[in-house]
Every structure is written in structure tokens, then in C-alpha cells.
Prior knowledge:
By secondary structure, chain A is an alpha+beta fold. Chain A has six helices and nine strands; from the N terminus they run E-H-H-H-H-H-E-E-E-E-E-E-E-E-H. Chain A has helices at 9-24, 36-56, 63-79, 88-101, 103-121, 210-227; strands at 3-5, 129-132, 137-143, 151-156, 162-164, 172-174, 183-187, 192-195, 201-204. In chain A, a hairpin with a 5-residue loop joins strand 8 (192-195) and strand 9 (201-204). In chain B, a hairpin with an 8-residue loop joins strand 3 (131-134) and strand 4 (143-147). Chain A binds chain B through residues 12-13, 16, 19-20, 23, 34-38, 40-41, 43-44, 105, 151, 175, 179-182, 184, 192, 194, 196-197, 202-204, and chain B through 51-53, 55-56, 58-60, 122, 125-126, 129, 131-137, 144, 146, 151, 182, 185-189.
Amino acid sequence: MRRMPLESDDRFRLRLINELLDVESSPGNPRPLTSQVLEFAMDEYLRGKLDERFNDAEDDLIVADVVRQVVATARDEVLSHRSRQSIAASVSGAIEEARIRLENNTTKIADLASLRVASMRAGRLRRRARSASKANEYTVEWVGLEGALDGVLIRPARQVEALDLAPDGAPWSLDPDASWFPFELLLDDARVVVVEEDGTLFVSVRGLSRRERDSVESQLLEVADALYV
Amino acid sequence: MYIDIDIQRDQLPLDPALRGLATGAHTRAALAPRFERAAANVLVRSSHHCRVHETTLRRMVDRCSEQLVFRALEDVKDWFSYTSGSFFSHGYPRLHYAATGNRKPTSNKSAIAAVGEGVAGLLAMRLYRGRLLARPFHDYPDIVLGSPNGIMLVEAKATTEDKVNSIASAELPRLAAYAASVRDIDPAVTTALLVVTRLVREQAYEVRIVEISL
């Protein structure tokens, strides 16, 4: 057994934002928020939430509504942390500044999402799917157009706390010197599964036939069942 | 296919004198040699090796690069095929000896930069247990990571030529001066990494990491 803790990207960013705010708002540090890293982290945190909302959409969304919801969620999540009330105005200000910095990004994300919806309707892009195996439910996402698929990403549909890189009878081998993400699981057919720090699995499917891709998907679900604790 | 990465890691503690020289050298070129000499006196060098599967590096390029290039590794492989004379073989289009004038073909700079960003992200994770926190777009530095030892800032450079050291020397004062200024307003930042990658062949890279401890 070789257990590695997992944390979603969203939770990780929120945790780091809270750590940075702890430094910024400590009693011996009465300055206004000046951290550049906080700025970078806040941008990525909001952008991640926008990406998720637009990626989940199967229809065109009203951009202003999505932005309003994302900003409100971000504010609630950051302010729900204990001892944030004293700097609530600064936190709200930092989130609002991030929203303004991301205005161009948001327009681009919305435009791309709209094109994506049209391509899904035309059958040129696959929809994000739920796939249930014996043990778990996963989100399966194909990367690339239907006629030129690049890879497949699998994530657990619910939050998983850890993975086991060396369970009994694992259908993969792992470099014993590998100590940190991204890990590479080598399957019997020489295919490599990339394991990322939020638990996402990636396999390349370039040049594979439809039948081979189907077999990769079921192989990947078996790996996921053995991997996630 | 696996890629072997030979790494030279230089640890550079940024004391106040070096901070001053870095800031000066960034503004006044005449101070650059003095900064370089002072840095050479205190840095601690070690060698490492990392082996990475192409699929993993491809994924790291997708996650860490902001270059508008879709198949960076394939592009780089094509370049190595060209420079090794492989394009003269049967089976390739007869394009590469029809160049006019003195203009020589060059590698795709965006593809090389993209691979350099992917390598930098990969090594910041594998060697420092970092996790991607932010990828600032059109900003400086290239990547920001959280790690058990604090926040890390990473700047990536890449080349196919034998000039890793000159690229590192040119960039180091800028990164050191920036990191020193960030440290004053961001106590959580503990390290800045300059990661210069030389793509030697399709399956062999050399990397110099300058690790600035703040």
C-alpha cells in the first residue's frame, strides 16, 4: 500500500488563499492587502470556477449571471473561514478586482463555451459523461474533436480523499523512485496513465481506432477502481 | 517513449548584498558581471536526473504553457528530424533543399518555449513537491506553485542551442530582483526557480535550475 492524499484544485486554491490571508491579516501586519501571490491565486480560483461552470453547460449561459454566481460563491467560501469577518471588505475588494482583471478572459471563455455547445450538438465533440464502474462513479472527458481525439481524462465524480499507488494485485507498475506527482502508471500493454495531484487520470489515445479507445476507457476505469481509496 | 533529463541544480541563497547587486544588475548592465561573480561564490551545485514519459510531458505542456501551439513535442521532433538530415530520406516531401537566399530554417520558438514551460512545471513538482497554484497569463513569472516549503515562483526558458548558461546569466538578475521585491510584500514566497532547458535531442534534454532561496 502506498497512500497519497488528494485535494481538488478548487480546494487547494482556497486553502492557499486562506493561508495567504492569514499572513496578510495577522495582528502585527496592519497593511491593506498587498500580496501579488494572493492576486495570482485569486485570479486562478475564479477562473477555475468559471471554467467549471461553462464546461458543465450543455446550453449557452448568460455570462453576467454566471459571473455573479461565481463571485458570490467565492466570497462565501473565503469568508466562511473563521476570523475573516474583520477583513470582509478587503476580501470582497480582492475578489472584485480579480473579477475585473478576468473580464477579457471571461468573454473568451463564454465565446469558446458557446462554440463548444454548438460542436456538441453537431456531434463533433463528446459531452462530458458519467461512467459507473463496479466500485465508483467517474466523470469521463474526451480531449479533442470526435475525428481527432487526443486523450481521455477520468476523475472521480465525488471528492476522493486519497489514492493507493500500490494496492495488492495492481494492474500496473510504478517507478519505485517516483515520489511525487505527476505519477506514471505503466500498464501491461505499455500504455502510460498519468496521475495528477487532484486525482485526475490521463491517457493518450492519439491514432487509436474506436475499438481500441473503448478498450482504453474500460481499462482506465479498472485502474481508477484499484487506485482510489 | 521516454525522455531523459539531466539536471544541474544550483542553490543560491539571496543574502542582502546579493539582493542589492541583483537589483542593480537588472537596471545597470555594468553591474551584471559583479552579480555573477558574487553569485558563483555562494551557490551550491548538485546533479540530478529525471526520466519522463512523453505523455506526461505533453500533459505538463498543456497545463503549464501559454504558448499558442498544439503539438509542441511533435513540432520539436520534426525539427530534430530536419537537423539530423532525416528529411532527406525517402518518404519526406522534397521541400528542405529548395530554400532560397541565405535564410536558414529555424526551429519553432513557440513550440520550444512551450516544452520549456512544461519541463519547468514538471521539475518544480517532481523535485520540490510543488503543486500548480496559478499560471499568470502574459505576466511574470511563468508559474506559481504551492509547496511544503512555501510558495515558489518559476520562470522558464528553453533553447535547442548550447547556450543554457548565457540564457541563465541574462535572466538571473531579473528574477532575483523580482523575487527579492516580492519577498518584501509576500512573506509566503520562499523560493524562485529559474529553469533553463536545452532540448538536445528528441529523447534527451539538459536543464539548469537556479534555485534562489529568499
